[in-house]
């Protein structure tokens, strides 16, 4: 790849996250749909990988296509599908599986030739259950979890779509599938196989769907501990987009190391200036960032905000990883203060850029 080539020139396939990348709740992320159209026009394949197990792929695709992005049901890879694929490897064709979740779980099991039964099925049907697939389902009741606990107590295979502790709703955080997994685990004294991000199976299923090599596939996401950590675990490059929930503060407090830092999906179509180390600092474009005792010193020059952030992120990752080696993980004390101050300086640069756009 030449330096004037866009980021996407290095790849044949993209595994794209949805919330915080393509849309935020009910709203489109600006430029995202158009960028995805242009990516597909270049001959690059795109699938959408989602930890959301409750919705069926056709419904997800309809929402994405409604925003103007290229999407059919076959382009959506859900954690319920990854879970069903995992069980299909372990069970006889046609085996009965307790579908402890919404329509997405039921449809995913049917699609791989397994027979879903609901926790409300009669005793005779429940007696034939060979495994449990757990995904988020708003209709689930205490009695349904009781049924699942009774079946799991006998040692049946147990797969969970994802272990996200929280589910973001317009008013704040609600318990996510991970919270309901914990609830069952507390009762039965063991834990399920989890297939959604950051665990590798959802990314592996996405690679199968794309038919691309891991080395020629790029994962794109907004969450460091799921999208980016999951991509690292699956051995694919990871582009972190700053249109979603995580920012520089989450980066310095976590362990993920993105390959690229993008302002939005539109940056996939632009050349990428890789930050370079010089004596005591990092450069990106005309920005230069040095780390000192009190955080980061930023010389912006005429650089775009994203170039400042790329140089700053390079400096912070170097500090974070050095601090982790010193104290065996997790930056504490003075290291932690310097990292948080540096991250706050970058958040300030991003906030200013966002305000500039609105003015
Ligand atoms: Mg997301």
From TrEMBL:
Taxonomy, superkingdom: Bacteria
One Gene Ontology CC term in the entry: cytoplasm
Gene3D superfamilies: HAD superfamily/HAD-like
Molecular function as annotated in GO: phosphatase activity
Signal sequence bounds: none
Pfam families membership: Hydrolase_6, Hydrolase_like
InterPro entries: HAD-like_sf, HAD-SF_hydro_IIA, HAD_sf
Name of the protein this chain belongs to: Haloacid dehalogenase
Lineage, broadest ranks: Bacteria, Bacillati, Actinomycetota, Actinomycetes, Micrococcales
């Amino acid at each position: 790849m030449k330096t004037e080539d866009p980021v996407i020139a290095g790849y044949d396939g993209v595994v794209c996250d949805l919330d915080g990348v393509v849309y935020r709740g009910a709203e489109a992320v600006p430029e995202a749909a158009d960028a995805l159209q242009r990516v597909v026009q270049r001959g690059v394949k795109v699938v959408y990988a989602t930890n959301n197990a409750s919705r069926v792929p056709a419904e997800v695709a309809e929402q994405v296509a409604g925003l103007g992005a290229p999407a059919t049901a076959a382009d959506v890879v859900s954690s319920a599908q990854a879970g069903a694929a995992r069980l299909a490897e372990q069970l006889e064709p046609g085996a009965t599986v307790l579908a402890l979740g919404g329509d997405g779980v039921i449809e995913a099991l049917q699609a791989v030739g397994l027979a879903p039964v609901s926790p409300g099925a009669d005793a005779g049907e429940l007696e034939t259950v060979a495994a449990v697939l757990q995904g988020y389902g708003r209709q689930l009741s205490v009695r349904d979890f009781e049924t699942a606990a009774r079946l799991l107590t006998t040692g049946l295979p147990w797969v969970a779509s994802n272990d996200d502790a929280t589910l973001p709703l317009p008013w704040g955080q609600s318990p996510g599938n991970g919270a309901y997994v914990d609830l069952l685990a507390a009762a039965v004294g063991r834990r399920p196989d989890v297939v959604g991000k950051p665990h590798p199976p959802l990314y592996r299923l996405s690679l199968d769907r794309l038919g691309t090599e891991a080395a020629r596939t790029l994962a794109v996401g907004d969450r460091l501990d799921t999208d980016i950590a999951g991509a690292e675990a699956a051995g694919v490059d990871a582009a972190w987009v700053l249109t979603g929930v995580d920012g520089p503060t989450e980066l310095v407090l976590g362990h993920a190391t993105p390959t690229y830092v993008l302002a939005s999906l539109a940056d996939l179509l632009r050349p990428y200036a890789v930050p370079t180390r010089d004596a005591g600092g990092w450069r990106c474009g005309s920005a230069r960032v040095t780390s000192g005792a009190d955080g980061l010193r930023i010389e912006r020059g005429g650089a775009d905000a994203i170039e400042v952030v790329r140089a700053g992120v390079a400096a912070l990752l170097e500090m974070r990883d050095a601090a982790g080696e010193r104290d065996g993980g997790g930056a504490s004390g003075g290291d932690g203060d310097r990292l948080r101050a540096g991250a706050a300086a970058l958040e300030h640069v991003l906030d200013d850029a966002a305000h500039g756009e609105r003015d």
